[in-house]
Amino acid sequence: MPEDHKRVFISYARQDRDFARQIGDLMIQRGVAVAGNLDASFGSDWRDGLRRQIESANALVLLIPSQTEPNRNAIWFEAGAAKALGKPVLAVLPPSREAATTELPTDLAGLLMLDANRRSLDSVADTLVQAVPARDLYNIAAH
Fold first, then answer.
1. pLDDT digits over 6-29, tens only?
2. CATH assignment of 3-142, given 3.40.50.10140, 3.40.1480.10, 3.40.50.300, 3.40.50.1580?
3. Which Pfam families does its entry note (predicted)?
């Protein structure tokens, strides 16, 4: 099935915005549609816009925030929403962040985590693309 039937939502902290763009660009180059608040402007109804994007994604790519990130609960909320919708959550530890210095909520602790300190960005993007389930063609036709 072509990669263009795959769509991800990238959840990230402000401090990881550049890394989110890099990963997003690499996934787009590999034929995956990328959503998230990378450049989106939802206006006053931003929560509904984020919800719709998470609902329409096949998976959520979670860039694990540092423990000092003040808005990290919003990132955990987005990941929890994806899990509640039955969507895979694919965790990535951004460069220059140590796994030992991060904490995952217990409901997310069992996630496979890709460490961008130990792998090239191309390798991380390739693994993410392979891990995203393809969109069901029947569901696309129904919408």
1. 999 999 998 899 999 999 999 999
2. 3.40.50.10140
3. TIR_2 (PF13676)
pTM: 0.81
The one-letter amino acid code at 62 reads: L
HEC readout, the chain:
CCHHHCEEEEECCHHHHHHHHHHHHHHHHCCCEEEECCCCCCHHHHHHHHHHHHHHCCEEEEECCCCCCCCHHHHHHHHHHHHHCCCCEEEEECCCCCHHHCCCCCCCCCCCEEECCCCCHHHHHHHHHHHCCCCCHHHHHHC
Extract the tokens encoding 20. Answer: 């989110």
The tens digit of pLDDT for each residue in 34-63 reads: 987 655 554 556 677 788 899 999 999 999
The radius of gyration of the chain from alpha carbons, rounded to an integer in Å, stands at 14
